UniProtKB/TrEMBL annotation:
UniProt entry keywords in alphabetical sequence: Membrane, Transmembrane, Transmembrane helix
UniProt-annotated stretches for the region Disordered: 250-279
Protein name: Integral membrane protein
Superkingdom assignment: Bacteria
Transmembrane segments annotated in the record for this chain: 15-35, 56-77, 83-107, 119-138, 158-179, 186-205
Bias kind Pro residues: ranges: 256-271
Length: 279
């Protein structure tokens, strides 16, 4: 095991990335265990940190750890020693705490245990998958060409131009796939060519930015996209949610209501504006 670790991780310069990955996964599992214990009301487990009644979310500690680890990594000149590995681990731990509250940052509300809070778990899963691919040696398509590109002539220049074109086409396919709501195929296509291009030419997910822009209400494309979503994508989402709930807990609370605005200038004293509600 030690020999494999030395040849696969240390000798290839992936020790900082390995430390980041381990700290990230461990930090996410530990913080999820903590918040589930708090939610279950376990008496002997420390509760939320509320000095003076102010709830300090763990994203605050995550940002601090990321700053310390990131700045330390910039200052350390030995890129293979234990010091940069420790800095990478600090950065990974902080990133786990931040992404675990990604939904809080996105919605600017505490939606941790609501349906909207699943966005945090999705963000963590994406980060784990991408880091795992990088750790096992996968690199974005065209990365080797970017690293070794140099002046050349004849067939070498033609080959470089062809590879550059393929890389750009693959990148455009990944962007279109993401806009069509196909997160996993779009990200996987960055590493494996052609996957994102195939996903880009297929129908978009209903509710995605592409569907809102290109599929008018009542159109045949929208109806077909909805049918395909119900038949193929929804069962996969249900399976994914079951796995997420096993790891991260159930997101079953009602989202908090938006704060009601105060009276506008010129309103009679003691009267608040009436909020319109769509039927």
């Amino acid at each position: 095991m030690a020999e494999w670790f030395g040849s696969t991780v240390v000798a290839t310069g992936r020790l900082p990335l390995f430390c980041f990955f381990v700290a990230f996964v461990s930090g996410f599992l530990l913080i999820r265990m903590s918040v589930r214990m708090i939610r279950a009301g376990v008496r002997w487990w420390p509760g939320n940190l509320r000095p003076g009644g102010l709830h300090i979310h763990h994203v605050v500690f995550g940002v601090a750890l990321m700053m310390v680890g990131g700045v330390a990594a910039l200052l350390i000149t030995d890129r293979q020693g234990p010091a940069v590995a420790a800095a990478a681990a600090l950065f990974g731990l902080g990133a786990a705490l931040v992404l675990d509250e990604f939904a809080l940052i996105l919605h600017l509300r505490d939606v941790y245990w609501t349906e909207q809070g699943r966005a945090s778990v999705d963000a963590v899963f994406v980060a784990v998958a991408l880091t795992g691919l990088l750790l096992t040696g996968f690199r974005p398509f065209g990365w080797e060409w970017v690293q070794s590109a140099g002046p050349g002539g004849g067939w070498q220049a033609g080959a470089q131009a062809g590879l550059l074109t393929l890389t750009l086409v693959n990148l455009v396919g990944s962007v279109v796939s993401l806009l069509k709501g196909k997160i996993w195929t779009g990200l996987t296509g960055v590493f494996v060519p052609a996957i994102s291009v195939v996903a880009a030419v297929r129908l978009a997910v209903p509710g995605s930015p592409w569907a809102r822009w290109r599929y008018p209400a009542g159109s045949a494309k929208l109806a077909q996209a909805v049918r395909r979503d119900l038949r193929l994508r929804r069962p996969l989402i249900k399976a994914k949610i079951r796995v997420q709930e096993l790891i991260a807990g159930r997101h079953d609370l009602e989202p908090p209501s938006a704060p009601r605005p105060g009276p506008a200038p010129g309103d009679p004293p003691g009267e608040a504006p009436v909020l319109s509600r769509a039927v």
